[in-house]
Write a structure and sequence with these properties.
This protein has 27 helices and 24 strands. The protein is α+β, with helices and mostly antiparallel strands and 689 residues long. It has 4 domains: 161 residues, 3-Layer(aba) Sandwich (Rossmann fold), CATH 3.40.50.1390; 138 residues, Alpha-Beta Complex (Hect, E3 ligase catalytic domain fold); 222 residues, no CATH class; 54 residues, no CATH class. Strands 2-1-3-4-5 form a 5-stranded mixed beta sheet, sandwiched between helices. Strand 15 and strand 16 form a beta hairpin. Helix 15 packs antiparallel against helix 17. The longest helix has 43 residues. The C terminus is likely disordered.
């Protein structure tokens, strides 16, 4: 009775004018599902608020955080409660215990401070508290501290047991596709032979190509499906065959379980401010809690797994001396070129030119750090040509052996793909057998069930026929690729390594693979002349001096003989007439193109040659105005008299627009009555000597 009187004295009319808020929370979905009594106890607090004087319509229940732990952030219901208290809308906040509201002192004390300022009360199972009073705030602070301390031993016991079991390799974890637990909880390979064969083919393809992207591309090109298991939803635990994706390929390559290793603690959840969510941080090998090699059977060795971890880094970084798989570009020394002097690896860049992409090797030096110019840049076309000639001379005796090994490798790939396709057809046929048995065992009188089972059986048979048809067509295509005629063509082609190397059908990627089989690195030295120091795999060293690469202006510079010919022709011809004569004689510009009037003009300007007009003026020839002035007539009268044949005055074309210069009338100018005068060949501009 005394407790009830005490509670009533704390509640005033100001509190009853505001709403009462009931906050309900449980830490996990499992607790909500299994610990129903705790949920009922929290909802029963609503009756206490009614008994204390709040109408039922003024009691707000906030249960948005059911199944969410207070040890982590991101609780929307708690945020709503805090905002309502801060706005002064809450007369009382009810919760079963302090741990329901908060599991850390930061949130708890902030909430107490807001309640003290707003004048709201706090009700739990033990009684009513006024955070505005010192003694109540002290007691509530102790309750919050005890709630936070209570969580530590619980978590420590749970985590300690988990880590101790993981250290022995006995903690059961979800296994990736291809690995399962046997009845004795030992990890074994999946009993489904098709799943095992798919994974073995995946690792073998990656070992050959050296790239996850090319492995995925090869699976797609050969139309090879890849298994995956559903872990959620209505199809949980079901095996599904889909397409291999890049994300799944990277997951498989980075998962040590495929190497037979037990691993625990590969990632860590790091809180992300200010929203309270968590980021996933992947830990390095030395930061993981447990790593037990050879804990169970795997698809690859642990040494091969570690080698696979280095592949992505070497694929991303163009570094000499690495096993970087060749790309699609045309630069033969990608990842092999070293700058002589500083010893840094040289990057590859491509310039877009009229005849395609042209490589260049460049050493950035310290330019990226200190904004300095590039250390060295060398055009790569001549260098690659020199390397190709060197390999053609060195490899011709081994060409046949290389061809046979390539042919055997192609045959093995086709056999692997064929075995996987055959197993896929067998699986579909196996699924059709149970459908047939169910149909045969049904009561014929039960037509509703019989019709459904018959339809299911027919569907399985159609799938089996289609899969078998696709398999047989693919098998014929693969076998035709390696028939005797094709084998003989390969042998004839690769009997001479030079033909294989120069064959336009040979991809740049394959040429670069050949280079990597023989060459360790190539040191490029560019000073007065270009020097290549080629270091072979066996340690042999060859020093070559190819022609020094020309800059663009040197490559496009016109032949001096052509310039001399243009200078001679401009004595008697315009730009257009000169271009016609040059083309008839087979001359080309510096870029390898035919001449026209504008190109002739650009050459004349570049080499500061005199044009037709300047040459005639220097020889004393006059414009129409100047000649007419000497004759005492207008320029129009001069042209009219010449057109009528009444004036014998020689003229010469100075450009392709029929502008002319005239000889001095003081030399030979006379008037005549001839109606059809004939100008000299020079005046008509027809001399092509």
């Amino acid at each position: 009775m005394d407790a009830n009187i005490m509670e009533q004295t704390r509640i005033t009319s100001a509190h009853l004018k505001r709403k009462a808020y009931l906050y309900i929370r449980q830490s996990s979905v499992r607790q909500v599902r299994e610990h129903k009594e705790s949920t009922l106890r929290q909802y029963d607090l609503k009756r206490r608020a009614v008994a204390l004087g709040w109408p039922e319509s003024e009691i707000v229940v906030i249960d948005d955080d059911l199944g969410r732990s207070a040890a982590f952030g991101g609780r929307g219901g708690f945020a709503e409660l805090a905002s309502e208290v801060g706005l002064g809308h809450a007369g009382m906040v009810m919760s079963l215990e302090a741990s329901r509201l908060a599991r850390n002192n930061g949130e708890w004390h902030r909430l107490l401070e807001i309640r003290a300022l707003s004048g709201s009360l706090l009700l739990d199972e033990d009684g009513i508290y006024d955070p505005g009073q010192f003694n109540d705030r002290l007691l509530l602070g102790l309750k919050g501290t005890m709630s936070e301390v209570e969580l530590h031993p619980i978590r420590a016991r749970l985590k300690g047991g988990t880590l101790n079991k993981a250290a022995r390799g006995e903690l059961k974890l979800r296994l990736p596709i291809g690995l399962v637990y046997d009845p004795n909880d030992r990890v074994v390979l999946d009993p489904d032979s098709q799943v095992v064969h798919s994974l073995r083919l995946f690792f073998k393809t990656f070992r050959r190509t050296g790239s996850a992207m090319r492995t995925v591309r090869e699976f797609h090109q050969k139309k090879i499906g890849f298994p995956r298991r559903e872990f959620f939803g209505p199809r949980k635990g079901e095996l599904i065959r889909g397409s291999l994706t890049c994300s799944r390929a990277n997951y498989i390559l980075h998962n040590p379980r495929y190497a037979g290793a037990y691993v625990f603690g590969r990632r860590k959840h790091v809180p992300k401010l200010p929203d309270g969510k968590y980021d996933v941080k992947w830990l390095s090998r030395d930061q993981r809690h447990t790593l037990i090699e050879d804990a169970h059977e795997g698809y690859i060795s642990f040494a091969e797994y570690e080698e696979n971890q280095k592949r992505p880094a070497s694929n991303r970084v163009c570094k000499a001396g690495t096993d970087r798989p060749p790309g699609e570009g045309g630069a033969l020394l990608q990842g092999l070129a070293v700058r002589g002097g500083c010893g840094r690896e040289m990057n590859v860049r491509y310039n877009k030119q009229s005849d395609g992409l042209k490589p260049r090797y460049e050493c950035a030096g310290e330019g990226r750090i200190f904004r300095q110019p590039r250390c060295q840049t060398i055009p790569g076309g001549g260098i690659d040509e020199t390397i190709g000639k060197l390999l053609a001379a060195a490899m011709s005796p081994l060409a046949l052996e290389v061809t046979l090994s390539v042919r055997e490798e192609l045959g093995r790939r086709i056999e692997e793909a064929d075995a996987l396709g055959r197993k896929q057809v067998e699986r579909i046929g196996y699924e059709a057998d149970p459908a047939q048995k169910r149909f045969m065992n049904v009561d014929p009188e039960n037509r509703l069930v019989a019709d459904v089972l018959e339809s299911e059986w027919n569907t399985k048979l159609i799938e089996y026929r289609e899969a078998k048809k696709v398999y047989e067509r693919k098998r014929e295509e693969d076998l035709s690729a390696l028939n005797e005629k094709a084998k003989s063509r390969i042998l004839e082609l690769t009997g001479d390594f030079k033909k294989l190397w120069n064959n336009p059908a040979t991809p740049d990627r394959e040429r670069k693979r050949m280079v990597r089989l023989l060459i360790e690195d190539v040191t490029l030295v560019k000073d007065e002349r270009l020097t290549l120091k080629v270091r072979f795999k066996g340690g042999a060293l060859r020093i070559l001096h190819p022609p020094k690469p020309q800059s663009s202006w040197e490559r496009w510079r016109i032949d001096p003989g052509v310039v001399e010919e243009i200078d001679r022709l401009l004595e008697k011809h315009t730009y257009g007439e000169t271009a016609v004569i040059l083309n008839e004689r087979g001359f080309k510009s510096g870029t390898g193109k035919s001449f026209d009037g504008q190109r002739v003009k650009r050459v004349r300007l570049a080499y500061k040659l005199k044009d037709r007009h300047q040459r005639l003026r220097e020889r004393g020839y006059l414009t129409a105005e100047e000649a007419a002035q000497k004759l005492g007539i207008s320029s129009g009268g001069l042209r009219a008299k010449r057109a009528a044949g009444r004036l014998s005055l020689k003229s010469f074309r100075v450009n392709d627009y029929n502008q002319r210069l005239y000889e001095d009338p003081d030399w030979t100018a006379v008037e005549t009555e001839t109606n059809n005068p004939r100008e000299t060949g020079e005046s008509r501009g027809l001399d092509k000597s």
